[in-house]
Write a structure and sequence with these properties.
4 helices, mainly alpha, two-stranded antiparallel sheet
């Protein structure tokens, strides 16, 4: 099992704003299922959607990222790798 902390409400809002600056339509899973709320409770990304999330995360490589957003992307990639290896969902 891998556990990662996204951050507090303020950090989640900051990350969401940073991602939206890059392009809302480019990151529908990141914005719609990960950074949509600073207080998620029992939400999950099904294993069947993790490959698409991984592709979104890879597209961040073309952009200059803040340290916070870069750390978030690295953590999410690790969660995706674990999910793909085990077939388990990513749970928040």
């Amino acid at each position: 099992m891998i556990a990662k902390r996204i951050g507090n409400i303020a950090l989640v809002a900051f990350l969401r704003d940073e991602v939206e600056k890059i392009g809302k339509s480019t990151f529908p899973i990141v914005l719609g299922k990960v950074l949509y709320s600073g207080t998620p409770c029992g939400d999950a990304i099904p294993a069947r959607d993790v490959a698409a999330l991984s592709r979104e995360l890879k597209s961040f490589e073309r952009h200059q990222l803040t340290r916070e957003l870069g750390d978030f992307v690295v953590d999410m990639k690790e969660l995706c790798e674990a999910s793909l290896a085990t077939g388990n969902p990513i749970v928040f």
